[in-house]
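Following up on my earlier thread - several people asked me to post the actual chain instead of describing it. Fair enough. Here it is, all 208 residues.
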Amino acid sequence: MTRRVDRPEGPRDEGMYTPKIQEDKKEKEKFAPLPEDRDKQILFATFFSYLKNLFDTFSPSKKIAGRVVDLQEIANNLEEFKRILMRLKKEDLSNDAAFATELSAIWEKLVDDFHEIEVIKRKNMKEIAAFRKVMDTIKLYPVDSEHRLGYYLLEHAGQDWLPFPFIEILLRLHEDHKQQKNESTLSRWHSLIDQAIEAIEMHLPFNP
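Reply from S.P.:
Thanks for posting it. Predicted structure:
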C-alpha cells in the first residue's frame, strides 16, 4: 500500500517561495525614509544649487558689469577718435596714408558702437542724442560734396587707396582751423565729441 503524503493547498510556484510577511518587510525597507539629518542635507544642497544657477543666469550684477564695459569702451573710442582727428589742427596730414588708415579704423569702431548703444537705448533715444549728432555731423561733412568724409572713412581710405577728394577734405579741415582757430570745424567737432563722452559717462553704473 502506497503511503499518501498530504500537501498544503495553494499555488505551486517555481523557485523559492517568499512568505508574505517577508515581502512586506522588504517593501517597507525599500521606501524607508532617510535619516532626518541626511534628508535635510540633501534638501538644502538641492535648494542652494538651484539658487546659484538662477543667480548665475539672471544676476543683475553681471548685466551691469557688461554695460559698464560696453559704455566705457564707447567713451574711450570717442576720446581716441578726438585725439587722432585733432592732430589735423597742428599739421597738414592730408597726404599721410597712415593717418588716414588710423582715422578710418577708429571711425569704423564708432559706427559699430553707435549701432550697439542705439539698441540698448532704443526706448530713450534722447540719451544718445549727443553721440548721434557727432556721427551725423562728421559723416556728412562737407555738405557741398557728393562724397563726404563718412563715405571715405567707411571705405578705409588710406589702407589701400588715398583718393583726391578725401585728401581735399582733410586739407580743408586743416586750413579752416589755421584761419578760424576756436571757431573752426575741428574745434566744433572737439566740443561735440566732449559732449557725447560726457553724456555716455553720465549713464555709467556707479558713476559718482
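The chain has nine helices and no strands. That should answer part of your original question.
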